[in-house]
# Entry
Amino acid sequence: MKARDIMHKGAQWITRDETLSRAAQVMDLIGVGALPVSDANGKLCGIVTDRDIVVKCVARGRDPTKVTAGDLCEGTPRWIDADADVDAVLHEMETHRIRRLPVIEHKQLVGMISEADVARHLSDDRVAEFASHIYADAP
# Structure
């Protein structure tokens, strides 16, 4: 099984200069809780989540119509090739303790893999192992 077999197709990303207000609107429109963020050249530079918007912007009294998605992008963005084996997908997510993983093919975003996708496509034992890695000693 490959990443493309378990991913949610039709993922969409926003550019780093889009406001968090716009990011929230896009999330609402397409029914997701996270959006990959690209730079001006279409290169992945991070992910912004609905929780990021609430905790890192609204809760701190910042204005989501002025703060950009790029302002919240931190660290090295993680992604996986569409043809990667599911074991590689799980290794990437477990090693970096991430819950959402963009899927890239020919330098284009083609999907996202979330915890729900893992749960839908893998055995209960493998899902339990995955969860133990993601949530063990979580901060």
